[in-house]
Write a structure and sequence with these properties.
By secondary structure, this protein is α/β, with parallel strands linked by helices. The protein has two domains: about 140 residues, Alpha-Beta Complex (Aspartate Aminotransferase, domain 1); about 220 residues, Aspartate Aminotransferase, domain 2, CATH 3.40.640.10. About 45% of the residues lie in helices and about 15% in strands. The strands form three sheets. A seven-stranded mixed beta sheet has the order 2-8-7-6-5-3-4, with helices on both faces. β5, α8 and β6 form a beta-alpha-beta unit. α3 packs across α12, α5 packs across α6 and α5 crosses α11. The radius of gyration is 21 Å and the shape is globular. The chain binds pyridoxal-5'-phosphate. The site of pyridoxal-5'-phosphate has 13 residues, from α5. The site of pyridoxal-5'-phosphate (PLP) has 13 residues, from α5.
Length: about 400
């Protein structure tokens, strides 16, 4: 049996979610902050496009890298929103979720034993995707002092002869950190000067709460574009997690390998879901439907931050993006797994331990939930923290 797959850890997020569901099924009112997906329904205009496609019999295989009209829509989106010019015919891949684009990117870029530098805390799928693709993940620890952002000096120090790829995820799951254009440029230049490729995961680009607008690494200089795979998807942007549509833009020589991998692993992403994604990109009604969702995330980010920062013993940074907040709970003397288990059992608040993200001192709260849940959940969380301080 394959030893790499045998070593993969079951997701801690799923364990917490399963227990939270179990409690809810028993009638307990659980405040659930474990979700990794928007709590909004997929906009109607998008759903209707899929239904129409099915009714019109558009249910067959498509081009392996995605329907040409969808690749064109994605390229137009990259140009309009991100300022990156990709050729729709040779530099765009539509995949079954951003995860799959990431996996193909690692397959395309890595030779067996190559290292992938991952600023940590980091989304827990990166190391597993890298391992399955034959690479070796190497974490580079970041701290609250730099807002959980990698600095060029840290990057320089971490690079070794087999280092091949740098992963940058902004806005970050789990920390909510967002790199500014100048920070991205400095990191990108340092990486490219040392011959690294960059995988830029921009999945949460819509959820940004900084004054500076979101910047895409590949848009900042031709030399950066030439060494970057930009990964994104419809899951978070259009509340389409279950539709499984992701996409990537990359220089032709990389994209062609990613497309070759997809052609044999998946043939193509689900055809009706591609029609749904096409509507998401080209129908102005989808944009209108998404606006209130983005506004809600911003309000929730402000509210949960203002409640958390008042709790004695909790150290927390204002989230700059995504829909996660990542407080440090080290002061309470419990490792994050025990902390979250007790928080769920004693106060019925579900949060995810930071441990699988690379920190046993933190917990991750997702604020993809109602304002009522935030109010009630943070009040319970504050009383839990107070009870720990008294012991
Ligand atoms: C940072 C990050 N990247 C990529 C993904 C992949 O999303 P999907 O495969 O649904 O497109 C996720 C999902 O949680 C994520 O948090």
């Amino acid at each position: 049996m394959n030893s790499v797959l045998q070593a993969i850890q079951p997701s801690a997020t799923l364990a917490i979610s399963a227990r939270a569901k179990e409690l809810a099924a028993q009638g307990v009112r659980v405040c659930n902050f474990a979700a990794g997906e928007p709590d909004f329904d997929t906009p109607d205009v998008i759903k209707r496009a899929a239904v129409a496609a099915i009714e019109a019999g558009k249910t067959k295989y498509t081009a392996a890298k995605g329907m040409p009209e969808l690749c064109r829509a994605v390229a137009e989106k990259f140009a309009r929103v991100n300022g990156i010019a990709y050729d729709p015919a040779t530099e765009i891949l539509v995949s079954s979720g951003g995860k799959q684009s990431l996996f193909y990117a690692f397959l395309a870029l890595l030779e067996r034993g190559d290292e992938v530098l991952i600023p940590s805390p980091a989304w827990l799928s990166y190391p597993e995707l890298v391992r399955v693709a034959g690479g070796r993940p190497r974490f580079v620890k970041t701290t609250a002092r730099t807002g959980y952002k990698l600095t060029p000096a840290q990057l320089e120090k971490a690079i070794r002869p087999r280092s091949k790829v740098l992963v940058l995820n902004y806005p970050s799951n789990p920390t909510g950190a967002v790199y500014s254009a100048s920070e991205l440029r400095a990191l990108g230049e340092a990486a490219v000067a040392r011959g690294l490729w960059i995988v830029a995961d921009e999945m949460y680009e819509r959820m940004v709460y900084t004054d500076e607008p979101f910047a895409s690494l590949a848009s900042l200089a031709p030399e950066l574009r030439a060494r970057t795979v930009t990964v994104n998807g419809c899951s978070k942007a259009f509340s389409m997690t279950g539709w499984r549509i992701g996409y990537a833009g990359a220089p032709k020589e990389v994209l062609s390998l990613m497309a070759a991998a997809q052609s044999h692993c998946a043939s193509n992403p689900c055809t009706p879901a591609q029609y749904a994604a096409l509507a998401a990109f080209v129908d102005p009604a989808s944009e209108e439907a998404v606006k209130p969702m983005i506004a809600a995330f911003r309000e929730r980010a402000d509210r949960i931050y203002s409640l958390l920062r008042k709790i004695p013993g909790v150290r927390v940074l204002r989230p700059e993006g995504a829909f996660y907040i990542f407080p440090n709970v080290k002061a309470f003397g419990l490792d994050a797994v025990t902390f979250c288990r007790r928080l769920l059992e004693e106060r019925h608040v579900a949060a995810v331990p930071g441990t699988p993200f690379g920190s046993a001192d933190h917990v991750r709260f997702s604020y993809a939930c109602s304002m009522d849940t935030i109010e009630e959940g943070m009040s319970r969380f504050a009383s839990f923290c107070a009870s720990l301080r008294q012991r």
